[in-house]
Amino acid sequence: MCEKITKVNSWLSAVFGDQPVPQFEVNTRTVDVLYQLAQSSEARCSDTALLIEDLKQKASEYQADGAHLQDVLLQGAGLSCASLSKPAADYLSALVDNAMVLGVRDTSLGSFMPAVNNLTNELLEAEKSNRRLERELRALRKRLGATLVLRSNLQEDINKTVKAQAVESAKAEERLLNMDFVTAKGKELSNRRERAEAQLVSRNMDKSITHQAIVQLSEEVTTLKQEIIPLKKKLEPYMDLSPSPSLAKVKIEEAKREMAALDSQFEMNVNFK
């Protein structure tokens, strides 16, 4: 524990430098976390230092190679950076820039060709992937259009259904109110009928003057009237005949007897009711 605290304090002092180290609660968890951070930081710093040394070494090698190539150009061809024309210097700068972009070690043709081939392959793969993505995008747009149309149709159907449901709900509510009214009215009329029947029974009313009896009597009167009509038609021919006392008297007596019988039956029915 003391060793970890010492290492943590040393690391914090190195990190903050001249600034004061912030106060923190010293416990096992805090010390362990800071100790792990210190170890990770030291490992990263060590890796970074090694990388810097490697880059410095490569830079020294590149500088040595550049100086050697300059000597070769100067001694073999009498060329130097100062003796190059502006177009040649521009071409040389462009060549160097391309070499840096392609990530090649030198500017030889053997280094440029593989790098250009790799870049061309990457371009072809990117174009192939782009075409595939465009096809997928067109398919997605097509499906999206169909989905939007379907959504619009569904929304329209939903709106129609909601409106129809509202209308049917209003009709159902109206029918329910009417049914409640009719039921209440039926109960009221039934109660009134029962009270009226009770009153009639309490008053010992003759059943022959009830509505049902009157309706039946009316039907019987109508039947008797229908039976009288043929008899009247039988009498019509005799009304136009010349007077014949004996024959007319006989026919008149027969008609009177039939009329008397019908009147007697009619009176009996009326008196019976």
TrEMBL record:
One of its GO terms (biological process) is cell division. It holds the Pfam family HAUS1. Residues 116-143 form a coiled coil. The keyword Ribosomal protein does not apply. Keywords: Cell cycle, Cell division, Coiled coil, Cytoplasm, Cytoskeleton, Microtubule, Mitosis. InterPro entries: HAUS1 (IPR026243). It comes from the Eukaryota. One of its GO terms (cellular component) is HAUS complex. It is found in: Cytoplasm, Cytoskeleton, Spindle. Belongs to the HAUS1 family. PANTHER family: HAUS AUGMIN-LIKE COMPLEX SUBUNIT 1 (PTHR31570:SF1). This is HAUS augmin-like complex, subunit 1. It comes from Seriola dumerili. The lineage of its organism: Eukaryota, Metazoa, Chordata, Craniata, Vertebrata.
